[in-house]
Amino acid sequence: MTKYQCTVCNFVYDTEKEKPKKIKPLPEDWVCVSCGICGRDIFVEIE
């Protein structure tokens, strides 16, 4: 299971819970669903 956290608003993207589950790692065009501003480059992988 891989998780990524937004370094601005702390939203956690869990690859096991997102749909489709085949998306691993974050999609290139990902935008944080919490703040709607932060892109993939702002997210860091967490354990």
UniProtKB/TrEMBL annotation:
Keywords: Electron transport, Iron, Metal-binding, Transport. Residues 1-46 form the Rubredoxin-like domain. GO terms for molecular function: iron ion binding. Transmembrane segments: none annotated. Pfam families: Rubredoxin. Its cofactor is Fe(3+). This is Rubredoxin. It comes from Candidatus Methanoperedens nitratireducens. The lineage of its organism: Archaea, Methanobacteriati, Methanobacteriota, Stenosarchaea group, Methanomicrobia.
